[in-house]
Amino acid sequence: MKINVLKKTEHELKIEIIGADHGICNLLQKKILTDENVDLAGYDVPHPLASNPIIYVRMKGNLNPQDTLFTAAKKAIADNEEFQKELKKALKA
Question: 64: which DSSP letter?
Answer without folding.
Answer: -
